[in-house]
């Protein structure tokens, strides 16, 4: 039951080229930077990544992206990541952009064993009708576009069919975890981390604070250990290394 491994390198040692990854994080909050760096150092490439965004400020997934290690991204937000936009428009990267709530539910559904579900989000748009550019040809044309999806009416309202997401691996970051893999997330880092963890066939967590089994009140567990196969304990320096994407001040 003790799922702790000694190092990040050991935790990701079996992630192969071409693997699919669900990666937690919301902006720069709750991003598993240490595990991502371990993948970078292993020079794993051809990755298919499912994540809300693809890193920023040269951290997180932006590290892998800039090195050309990511082949496909399923996400909701490009944001201020100029390299992400450049690779996408240049035809170097395949990108499936979907509504943020749909992405969250597709991850949750995959982890819960639900193959597909209907949602009103995207009905009447290219999300449902198809034609969203997945890959450009580098000359302004579309090399690959999204296919149309099934639309069905329920009680007078149209809904589009979306499929659950399962990935080979998931990388997440938690504020606290015990040796059995039970995890607690802090504030907005809870947005996508539990869902990404559910979607992975092998889920690896980095935790800022490692405690013994029983020290987390069962009522406080955000993700049960059944969804986690491995975890590493961060050093105090790693746990404290948190970047701020948009620094603001108030009167």
From TrEMBL:
<dbReference type="InterPro" id="IPR004163">
    <property type="entry name" value="CoA_transf_BS"/>
</dbReference>
<comment type="similarity">
    <text>Belongs to the 3-oxoacid CoA-transferase subunit A family.</text>
</comment>
<dbReference type="GO" id="GO:0016740">
    <property type="term" value="F:transferase activity"/>
</dbReference>
<dbReference type="Pfam" id="PF01144">
    <property type="entry name" value="CoA_trans"/>
</dbReference>
<dbReference type="InterPro" id="IPR004165">
    <property type="entry name" value="CoA_trans_fam_I"/>
</dbReference>
<keyword id="KW-0808">Transferase</keyword>
<protein>
    <submittedName>
        <fullName>CoA transferase subunit A</fullName>
    </submittedName>
</protein>
<dbReference type="InterPro" id="IPR012792">
    <property type="entry name" value="3-oxoacid_CoA-transf_A"/>
</dbReference>
<dbReference type="InterPro" id="IPR037171">
    <property type="entry name" value="NagB/RpiA_transferase-like"/>
</dbReference>
């Amino acid at each position: 039951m003790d799922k702790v491994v000694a190092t990040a390198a050991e935790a990701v040692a079996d992630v192969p080229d071409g693997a699919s990854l669900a990666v937690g994080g919301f902006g720069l909050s709750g991003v598993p930077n240490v595990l991502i760096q371990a993948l970078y150092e292993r020079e794993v490439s051809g990755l298919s990544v499912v994540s809300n965004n693809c890193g920023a400020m040269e951290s997180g997934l932006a590290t892998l992206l800039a090195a050309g290690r990511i082949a496909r991204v399923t996400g909701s937000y490009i944001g201020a990541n100029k390299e992400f936009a450049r690779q996408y428009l240049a035809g170097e990267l395949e990108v499936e952009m979907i509504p943020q709530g749909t992405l969250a539910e597709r991850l949750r559904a995959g982890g819960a064993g639900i193959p597909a579900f209907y949602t009103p989000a995207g009905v009447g748009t290219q999300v449902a009708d198809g034609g969203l550019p997945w890959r450009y040809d580098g000359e302004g044309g579309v090399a690959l576009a999204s296919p149309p999806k099934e639309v069905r009416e329920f009680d007078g309202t149209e809904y589009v069919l979306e499929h659950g997401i399962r990935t080979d691996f998931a990388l997440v970051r938690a504020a606290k975890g015990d040796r059995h893999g039970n995890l607690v997330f802090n504030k907005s880092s809870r947005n996508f981390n539990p869902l990404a963890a559910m979607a992975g066939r092998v889920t690896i967590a980095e935790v800022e604070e490692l405690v013994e089994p029983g020290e987390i009140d069962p009522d406080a567990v955000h993700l049960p250990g059944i969804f986690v196969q491995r975890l590493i304990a961060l050093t105090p320096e790693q746990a404290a290394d948190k970047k701020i994407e948009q620094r603001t001040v108030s009167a």
